[in-house]
Specification:
The chain is mainly alpha-helical. It has one domain. The protein is built from four helices and no strands. It has helices at about 1-30, 40-60, 70-95, 100-130. The longest helix is centred in the last third of the chain and has 32 residues, at about 100-130.
């Protein structure tokens, strides 16, 4: 179990780098990446959403030290990511195909995050069986 737990921790650490980096970039630079001129209000909203993205990534990182007992937090964070992915999927249907980076984000949101959540649940269940404790 310990080997698989470490592999899960490494995987989550790597994948959570995406929202941390993208969120931090968005907070610091706004929509500069797109090159589009937007209103001050749209820019403010973009930075707010980037801050949420940064926070989600940091919260995923916060599960790493005791990932085997952080099931509730992990599931909540995954739910937030999946809801965001559903929003992106609806946008794809309404407005068309976005950039490859956005398609990549969609895959992480609707496939990778749920798979990591299932994996975390597996590790939590193994931990509970081995040590006779329930999730915290």
């Amino acid at each position: 179990m310990e080997r698989e737990r470490k592999l899960l921790q490494q995987s989550v650490a790597i994948v959570a780098t995406i929202p941390v980096a993208a969120g931090l970039y968005g907070v610091l630079f706004g929509q500069a990446l797109t090159g589009d001129a937007v209103s001050i209000s749209a820019e403010s909203h973009f930075r707010f959403l980037s801050g949420l993205l940064l926070g989600i990534g940091l919260c995923f990182w916060s599960t790493l030290p005791s990932i085997e007992i952080r099931t509730g937090r992990f599931r909540l964070l995954t739910l937030l990511v999946v809801i965001g992915g559903v929003g992106r999927l609806i946008g794809l249907g309404l407005t068309g195909l976005p950039s490859l980076f956005m398609i990549g984000g969609l895959i992480v949101e609707l496939v990778v995050a749920p798979v990591l959540c299932l994996w975390q649940t597996r590790i939590a269940n193994l931990y509970a069986q081995e040590y006779g404790v329930a999730e915290v």
